[in-house]
Request: fold
Amino acid sequence: MAIIPHIGIQTDEAIFSSPLFPGGSGWFEISMLKKKVPFMVMTYLGTVKTGLYWLLLHFWTPSVYLLRVPVLLLGLLTILIFYFFALRATAPSTALFATALLATDTSYLLTTAMDWGPVAIQHLCHVAGLFLILKSYQTKRLAPLAGGCFALGIGLWDKALFLWMLSGAGFACLIVFFTEIKRFLTPRRIITAGFFFLLGALPFVIYNIRRPLETFRGNASFSRDDLSNKIHLLPYTMNGSVLFGYLVDEDWAVKTPGQPRTAVERASLALAQLSGERRENLYWYAFAASLLLTPLLLATSWRRPVLFLLLMMAAAWAQMLATKGAGGGAHHSILLWPYPLLLVGIAASWVASKLGRYGTPFQLALAVVLCGSALVVNNNYLRQAIRDGGAASWSNANFTLASELGRFHASKIYLIDWGMFDNTRFLTSGRLPLLLGSDPLMRPEPTPDEMRFVKFMVEDPKAIFAGNTDTKQVFPEVNQRIKALAARLGYEREHLETVYDYHGRPFYEIFRFHPKAADRTAISPPNRSLKR
Reply:
């Protein structure tokens, strides 16, 4: 909660909201009761989160808190359900240990609160699905099986990458629990499981029937490209360091550090000074030690849960490594969670069982050390958010941009670079006439059709443009290209405003074009810069 207002909204974090505002639409919609109902936001991204926020927007106006608090609560719910799953699958001390690790896990908390993956619903659906299916097996009741399969179906509709963990869990179950599955799956249970899974995933299934397997045709390709970086991503995600420089900016990049304003923020900076501003927790070492212990664990009563976890994670991770264009970000590797932490919990419980009366103190001390190491890293993220703000596309300058664009009363607002559309649209409830103007600027020389579109943009006297400053450009050279193309058409660029982040760094520019011979005295509003 403390870090939320310091970090700007990354555009992918708000992409789910595209169908919620006037003029927006989903990638795939169907007509129901004379209304268009969006089923998919992208070929692989469903509208589960869209539906949740459709309800929330009936009660609250868009803000950074409305965006992030609900997913943070979903993350809390995942932690609670994970505890009950671990309790049924292992032992009380193991469940408590693993849940304590998850509740303080740096990467899990940050990727959930800043849900650009998105991952919050993915975690919840997978953990809830496994918990309810395990409960159904242990209690012989049909209702938990229906609920668990429905949750897994919802997870698939939410995002197709859910198949990584879903297939991993299915593969591990077949290998480790084949005899139990064979006894458990009566015709009645098979029909129930299949029906409720398809019910949860129905919009995803309808989409891939109406547009035959478009999700898979467009995304299911494999490559060994970037394999080394993907492999190294796992330890960085595990030790919590993966988001430094990506989510929060670094000290060296900020000339005017932000100052703490609340008691919590002052305490955060004081703690960071005491702890040494650490950037890595000890989770990766604990996980590596647990992997080294697996030959011993496989010879004990823990054999089957350990084998299940290893096979599930290995199968899912292998798909991450092999999938072209995916698996290379923290929002991909974090999908393995919370299961690496359960393996650590099992290893800690086994070691504790060998220590006799010292076992419980050992387990408690280890939990304190591991969770404490995570908490100081979490606090360093908060310290850098306060001092340095969000990095690159997470800049809090987009809060100001959203409020400033409306001041010009433009007929159209062309956004010529990446990272400004969905977040600005969300913060302004879709009230601004935002349009993407970057397509004709993607190559040094536009096509004739693209040139006509550039002419259409620049010749509108009531249109304005917004882009990143030259040093913050995401699409290379878009600023220079639109200026050069406009000049070719006889127009020149007029700077209207520079938008700064809360630390005084220029991030965005607002401008427009007018004929070179135009009377500049008639231009309004006057040039100005906004600095906060």
Q: What stands out?
A: DSSP finds 22 helices and eight strands in the chain.
